[in-house]
Amino acid sequence: MKIASRATRALAVLSLALAATGCAIKPTTHSPAVVAVADWGGTPADPAKARRHTITHITLHHQGEPFKPGTDPRQYLRNLQTWSRTTKNWLDIPYHYIIDLEGRTYAGRDIAYAGDTNTEYDPSGHALIEVVGNFEEVEPNRQQLDAVVDVMAMLAQKYGVPVENIASHRDHSDKTVCPGANLYRYVQSGYFREQVALRLTRAR
């Protein structure tokens, strides 16, 4: 599925919609504060079992399940780590960064190690970002959208990822709707690419 490289009209509509709901775009160049694995109670992966990779893409996912307000994100991450290792036999949480309802960012799998997926695409080379919630059912909030841009900009700057390589799970697999229609809209319109490009320009 192709993503429009320039979508000025769509971006203008999204900007107006965000402003109308108190979610105005606020370009910044700061790096996000990231909650370390040890701070949410996780344990490091076994490097002997890891598949190392070099970051060339940034790929957005959603949880795909409801995440109710008041849910403890640290407990969610501990549960996800346990499930990933015991049920899926994966190295660790499949994602490198996880964003909660408040826009806080948590470290997941070590970025040096390739992630995992339930679909057919090979995530080697992809920095994987998960946003909690099911965006087939709910809208992402302003904090989450801002956090996604923060993390994407940080990754693009650190690893030299071109904005054209910012996409989502469903852009690499036809077997999923991830990251959900309401979040994918911001991928498809070019919003995330435009915002990351703006932040990178401001950081120079």
Walk me through what this model shows:
With 204 residues, the chain is an alpha/beta fold. 34% of the residues lie in helices and 11% in strands. It has helices at 8-20, 73-86, 142-159, 169-172, 181-188, 191-203; strands at 34-35, 57-62, 97-99, 105-107, 126-131, 166-168. The protein has a six-stranded mixed beta sheet. Strand 3 and strand 4 (105-107) form a beta hairpin. The longest helix has 18 residues, at 142-159. The chain is globular, with a radius of gyration of 16 Å.
The proportion of residues forming helix, as a percent range, comes to 25-40%
SS-based structural class? alpha/beta
Quaternary structure state of the chains depicted: single chain
Number of helices: 6
Shape descriptor: globular
Brief write-up:
With 204 residues, the chain is α/β, with parallel strands linked by helices. Helices cover 34% and strands 11% of the residues.
Which key features would you list for this structure?
disordered N terminus; globular; 6 strands; 6 helices; 204 residues; 6-stranded mixed β-sheet; alpha/beta
Layout of SSEs?
Layout: H1 8-20, E1 34-35, E2 57-62, H2 73-86, E3 97-99, E4 105-107, E5 126-131, H3 142-159, E6 166-168, H4 169-172, H5 181-188, H6 191-203
Parallel strand pairs: 1-4, 2-5, 2-6, 3-5
Antiparallel strand pairs: 3-4
